[in-house]
Amino acid sequence: MVATTTTAPAEAPPAAGTRRGIVSPRAAGPLALGLTVLIWAGFALSARALGSSTLLPADAALIRFGVPLLVLAPALWRRRRQLAAVRPGPALKIVCGAGVPFFLIVMYGGSLTSAAYVGAIVPGMVPLFVSALMVANGRGLPRGTQTAGLALIVAGVVALVWRYTVALDQDMLLGAGALLVASGLWALYTVGLREVGLDPVGSIGVLCLPSFTIVALLALTGVLPMGLGRAAGGDVLLFLVVQGLGVGLCAGLLYAFAIRRLGPERCAVVGSLSPVAVVLLAVPLLHESPTVSVLIGVPLITTGVVLANRRARTTTEDTARA
Predict the structure, then answer these.
(1) What is the dihedral of CA 43, 48, 54, 57, to 10 degrees?
(2) CA–CA separation, 309 vs 149, rounded Å?
(3) pTM here?
(4) Residue 116 in contact with residue 47, Cβ under 8 Å?
(5) Residue 285: how many other CB atoms lie within 10 Å
(6) Do the beta carbons of residue 93 and residue 136 sit within 8 Å?
(7) Which of 316, 221, 225, 301 is nearest to 267 (CA)?
(8) What is the pLDDT of residue 1?
(9) Of the candidates 105, 79, 97, 90, which has an alpha carbon nearest to the alpha carbon of residue 137?
(10) d(Cα 265, Cα 67) in Å, to the nearest integer?
(11) What is the DSSP letter of 293?
């Protein structure tokens, strides 16, 4: 079944003499997507930084999913009936795609690789996985520039891991494999957001409520070790700002809004900018020096995502005219 969303009624044009909003409706979606890129760059950097911090993965997950719930608690309570009515299928895509499995896999992959790999592989491969999901839903095979773009994405990932494959660097290969799995999960999340039909606040509730509950249960039962009480204050503050407020709250709202405005295929273009932002920021913040494989792979992935998105735009416009 093709993913659908509820469409809000068209807004009446503003009356003469009234002031328009600061951002036009046409620019709102791309602007939300651009801000999401910057926040996700911070997510990739923090995934790499977790390995050298005093926080454990369970601590970071509790912050990631707990802060949005705390901030949005009144709004989520008002949406309790809509949240209870969400179908299990789309909800499972959201929870698995951006919840506990995704979070722990990204943190693990980041600890074995670098921020550049997190920023390039996770969002960069999303268009490939989204296209596969769309084909499975009967949307047809990719063609034209989209095919070339997907091929460039694959070539970019191969360029990233080739030297480690030849050298049999098991840690890097295992980390890159984990990031590929995380990218596939994020594609599920992207499609699930479109299917669930909730506003951005409701989408965060569907993601964070079960995710926080799962992490808390795993921590309380000892399955996931937790050391939040012994962590350094600076580390807690960093992850509170980047993961809790940034990724969990702001990026969650912005990405869900962009999905409703632009659709899942067009939003996959976020991967074309995120790797570049991460590579540039990792140099001064984490003192990472881009390797030759990064300098080759990231531009290939970036170009591939841009080309892969071209057909998505045409398809969206054709659908609107039909």
Answers:
(1) 70
(2) 8
(3) 0.75
(4) no
(5) 15
(6) no
(7) 316
(8) 39
(9) 90
(10) 29
(11) H
